[in-house]
Amino acid sequence: MIESLLVANRGEIARRIIRTAKRLDIRTIAVHSDADADLPFVLEADEAVNIGPANPAQSYRNADAILAVAKERNAQAIHPGYGFLSENAGFARTVESSGLVWVGPGAEAITAMGDKINARNLMAAAGVPVAPGTPEPVADVDAALAAAQQIGYPVMVKAAAGGGGMGMAVAADEAALRTELDKVRAFAERMFGDGSVLLERYFPRVRHVEVQILGLADGRVIALSERECSVQRRNQKLVEEAPSPAVGPELRERILAAAVRAGEAVNYRNAGTVECLLDPATGEFFFLEMNTRLQVEHPITELIHGIDLVELQLRIASGENVTVDTGRSGHAIELRINAEDPKRFLPGPGRITTWVEPADARVDSGYVEGNTVTPFYDSLLAKLIVFGADRTEALAKARAAVAGFAIAGPKNNLLFFAELLENPEFLSGDYDTGIVGRMR
């Protein structure tokens, strides 16, 4: 087993990784920016090193600084969490070539899945369903118009190097496509350094369902149960639940088998997620992307399977042949508590003057009372996770947990969740990615 671990991240996920590492008697090294010096993850690690200013490019995305700390403090391994450098193939490759253990998939898998077009083509070749779309970047407006004519409007315009819900736009007709193509290309060039764009069929009513996979040290890929992630704002998730209320036994068998094929196609190791779009009208599902890292919403899978995914990541990275029981029970729901207003979802940082966590719920938080939420990073404050024997019980616990969570200082979206948990469409389980728009 790894004996020392550098956590190349911040906030709740750094704290989450440190918690499991400590339980396994692994020495932990945190790295932090000037802005995060007093956050809990810094205080809870065995060692902590300041690596630069608040700007992520000068701290959490500064690969050279992180590697220097790893060597200076004799870390055996690096866990990247999610975001920042977690899906940076060059960083993963450098970590391994430096003689350190990378707690994640190999650089080849990260590269293969990082480009949306390459990923689509690989998945199609492996027999994983993909939505109708372009097998290569659209060269210009004329090529995009011709492709859209063949695919059929509306179409989704997507940055090939994008992720996390960024770099996407819907075009309902030719005029919109001309406009959105230029916008997405410019955004992709600015954000990802790659202006390549693809087109896919856009489904006006669709659900977002994903499967947790594990690539084991012995080469096998296994799939755990699916997660429902359709409650979104600006293509970014707000609520996840497992299992999905839209997936029955027959569909579950098909979607899990497809996720295994996806992992096998790139010789996947460690934890990853295969994301799919599900057409509720037909029961068809299509590959969306593979996230080559731990997901924000991993706790709901942990609760229904009775496992610790971070522990499994560390054991797989250590070369252990782990045994994972794929059986599941109960229902889990996760709410992302963000420092943003509950109506327009605009960020609202500030000093936390009240922080009282609810009883009978799991809270994975990045902050405590007295901390300041800065504008430099993602607005996630905490993940509120509940577990019940079935969906009805989980919903009741979620309502109680939201009512029992007191936060003052920064803005927060607890009022949105209180509204959602009384919404008939959400309560029915028959909802889609448009639900938040219909509530506003």
From TrEMBL:
Keyword Cytoplasm appears in the UniProt entry: no
Domain Biotin carboxylation: 1-440
Enzyme Commission number, as recorded: 6.3.4.14
PROSITE patterns associated with the record: ATP_GRASP (PS50975), BC (PS50979), CPSASE_1 (PS00866), CPSASE_2 (PS00867)
Domain ATP-grasp: 120-318
EC supergroup of this enzyme: ligase
Entry GO MF terms: ATP binding; biotin carboxylase activity; metal ion binding
Domain of life per record: Bacteria
Name listed for the protein in its UniProt record: biotin carboxylase
Species this chain originates from: Actinoplanes cyaneus
Phylogenetic placement of the source organism: Bacteria, Bacillati, Actinomycetota, Actinomycetes, Micromonosporales
Gene name linked to the record: accC_1
